[in-house]
Design goal:
136 residues, mainly beta, 1 helix, 7 strands, 5% helix, 46% strand, elongated
Length: 136
């Protein structure tokens, strides 16, 4: 998911405490999974915090509004396992993968998109839901 990638700063922008100002790239990527009919119903993030887990393949991005309240969150997580075709050479395959994006709507509910892959042999299954709480 592109949302969790650090955003480049222009020379006149400052990175303060991990807060990155919104850029054209962020605007495009944070809306990537947002259905067009919901675009006007969600709050627009002004800056993002990015977190990366170094032990496992996991990333998280949180977007904040003008009141410093979360209005967007996204994460992706991939768990791999070793596999072999001949018991001599091993390689990593996806055992489980999850991608999530959530947007706070103007009525304070959250529109959530979640995609789950159970193995490399199955296609990702994505769905939308609405929740009163921000996903964690």
């Amino acid at each position: 998911m592109e949302n969790s990638r650090p955003l480049p700063l222009n020379k006149d922008q400052k990175n303060t405490a991990g807060k990155l100002p919104i850029s054209a790239e962020a605007t495009t990527s944070w809306r990537a999974m947002l259905p067009a009919r919901w675009c006007d119903a969600v709050e627009v993030p002004l800056y993002f915090e990015h977190h990366k887990e170094y032990e496992i393949n996991a990333r998280r991005c949180i977007g904040y509004d003008a009141d410093d309240q979360p209005c967007f969150t996204a994460h992706n997580y991939t768990q791999t396992r070793l596999a072999s075709d001949d018991d001599e050479e091993f390689y990593e395959v996806v055992a489980y993968a999850e991608q999530l994006a959530a947007w706070r709507m103007r009525d304070e509910r959250w529109l959530i998109f979640r995609s789950i892959t159970a193995s490399q042999c199955t296609t990702a299954r994505g769905f939308y839901s609405i929740s009163p709480d921000m996903p964690r």
